[in-house]
Design brief:
Elements: H1 4-8, H2 16-28, H3 30-36, E1 39-45, E2 51-57, H4 78-89, E3 97-101, E4 105-116, E5 119-129, H5 138-156, E6 179-183, E7 188-191, H6 193-201, H7 213-218, H8 231-236, E8 242-247, E9 250-261, E10 264-274, H9 276-317, H10 321-345, E11 351-352, H11 353-368, E12 374-380, E13 384-385, H12 387-408, E14 413-424, E15 427-436, H13 452-463, E16 468-472, E17 478-486, H14 490-494
Parallel strand pairs: 12-14
Antiparallel strand pairs: 1-2, 1-5, 3-4, 4-5, 6-7, 6-10, 8-9, 9-10, 11-13, 14-15, 15-17, 16-17
Organism: Janibacter alkaliphilus
GO molecular function, one term: ATP binding
Protein name: histidine kinase
């Protein structure tokens, strides 16, 4: 099924601003479908005298008319074609027409020219299933009247509003959440039951209809938190905007849509949604996030304490193998602490490992270099890494760099680290190369008979499902290559 953007690219003579106008309409027209209890179909000219469906919306407040999506379909019905032609010839919504279809169902259909700056860009058709004959409720009558106002604004080029918050963003109020109709003074002409309930939960106990909405909201008891600067504009219906309010132990999100006639504001609708539970969950998530970061911070502090104790103990031993072993342990604990420090200062559940590699690499070069000068360069990117993998990777890189400084370039030289991530056979593979310009591998070098650091590296690489190789560099020196199979970061897995 083609997207609206793909279909719009086939429509001739559309300016970029006109394309954006049509996107804004479709982004926000679900509220129109809900108010009109109708299927909405956007017809676009195909450049050959015909029409093609660019978008299709169904109501969430009533029965749908078209079960199958119409996107990409051509206009073939003679009755509907005459309705579309009538809309193109005029500058206002057409009169509704009754159309009988199968199973004794009757449709009410009308068409509206979608205009901007006096030019018709498309045609919007509304299809309403009348169902069984019955008297409409007051809610249905008020919703239908608002829908008529919005359709007239579409024909006049007054809706959608440029720069207005549109679409189904998190917490955005919808028609089913609550609708309030305001007059030009900001007084409530109609409030749906859900809207009244939401205001009641904010602490207002008096009447809502007939009252000025701005006064109702400003008079809420125990108004909590900061006052949204756009709240006054929204409650008066003076601007197409959205604001939140917290009072009486509850929270609500309000969105205003001014209603215009010939460019003059004659009132507004305010969509109102109770978001108390949503805010409670957000506060819980924030609290949990802060708790997790505090845990990471304390783990980092504890590791640094362990490193300090080992350092003190090494000084008491004096020079020798025991002191060397403790110094190596201090370095390894410090590397793990660096990972937890990164976790404690960020808002993600993953580690930006490029930062860990850069900071850890500089620290190892500063501490391990005794003579000469070592230049460390990092190319490529490690990317985001899960904490359980970050600790192993940090230790592997630390050991390899330490060996390169001590055995590869003890008198100074250059060390190059290159990291590459790729997807191979559906798996996230990290490949790292550490190369120095020193004397190269010693004669008869075998990793299985090397020191503790080399055995640690080999074991951790195997735990990550990868491989490691030591080899002579192309221009001399030593090159260590290792790979790791990484699981998808938690943030990416949820998105």
């Amino acid at each position: 099924m083609p997207s609206l953007a793909e279909i719009l690219r086939t429509v001739p003579d559309l300016e970029p601003a006109e394309v954006e106008w049509l996107h804004l309409l479709v982004e926000d027209w679900q509220l129109l479908a809900d108010l009109a209890f109708s299927d909405l179909v956007l017809w676009l000219p195909d450049g050959a005298g015909g029409w093609v469906v660019g978008a299709h919306a169904r109501p969430m407040t009533g029965p749908m008319v078209f079960v199958e999506d119409l996107i990409g379909s051509r206009l073939e019905s003679p009755d509907l074609r005459s309705l579309v032609d009538e809309a193109v010839a005029g500058s206002a919504p057409t009169s509704p027409r009754r159309h009988a279809r199968e199973m004794q169902d009757t449709l009410l259909e009308r068409a509206v020219p979608v205009r901007r700056s006096g030019r018709t860009l498309a045609v919007l058709s509304c299809h309403t299933s009348l169902g069984q004959a019955r008297r409409r409720s007051r809610l249905e009558e008020c919703y239908a009247a608002i829908a008529d106002d919005l359709l007239a604004m579409i024909a006049a080029g007054d809706w959608p509003h440029l720069g207005a918050p549109t679409g189904m963003r998190r917490g955005a109020p919808r028609v089913g959440d609550g609708v309030i109709r305001l007059d030009e003074r900001g007084a409530v002409r109609y409030a749906s039951p859900n809207a009244v309930s939401a205001i009641r939960r904010l602490g207002h106990q008096g009447p809502v209809e007939g009252e000025v909405l701005a006064q109702v909201i400003s008079g809420l008891p125990r108004h909590e938190g900061y006052v949204d600067e756009g709240l006054a504009l929204v409650t008066m219906g003076r601007a197409a905007w959205r604001a939140d309010v917290t009072a009486g132990g509850g929270s609500a999100s309000l969105r205003a849509i001014p209603l215009l006639t010939r460019g003059r504001r004659v009132g507004a609708i305010v969509l109102l949604r109770d978001i108390s539970e949503l805010r409670r969950r957000e506060h819980e998530l924030i609290s949990k996030d802060q708790t997790i970061r505090e845990i990471h911070h304390r783990v980092k502090n504890n590791l640094q304490t362990v490193a300090a104790l080992l350092r003190l103990q090494s000084r008491r031993l004096g020079p020798g193998p025991g002191q060397d072993a403790l110094v190596e342990s201090v370095r390894r604990v410090g590397v793990i602490a660096l990972v937890y420090e990164t976790l404690s200062t960020g808002f993600s559940e993953t580690v930006e490992f490029d930062e860990v590699a850069a900071r850890g690499g500089r620290a190892i070069v500063d501490v391990a270099t005794t003579t000469g000068q070592v230049h460390l360069s990092l190319t490529g990117s490690f990317g985001q890494v899960r904490p359980e993998h970050a600790t192993s990777l940090a230790l592997i890189l630390s050991e390899v760099l330490q060996n390169a400084i001590e055995h590869g370039v003890p008198g100074g030289g250059e060390i190059r680290v290159d990291a590459r991530r790729s997807i191979e056979q559906g798996q996230d593979i990290l490949r790292v190369s550490v190369e120095d310009d020193g004397a190269g591998l010693p004669q008869g070098f075998r990793p299985s008979r090397a020191g503790l650091g080399t055995r640690i590296v080999t074991s951790m690489v195997q735990d990550l499902g990868g491989e490691i190789r030591w080899e002579d560099g192309e221009g001399g020196g030593t090159r260590v290559r290792f790979s790791a199979r990484l699981a998808a970061p938690a943030d990416a897995a949820r998105s």
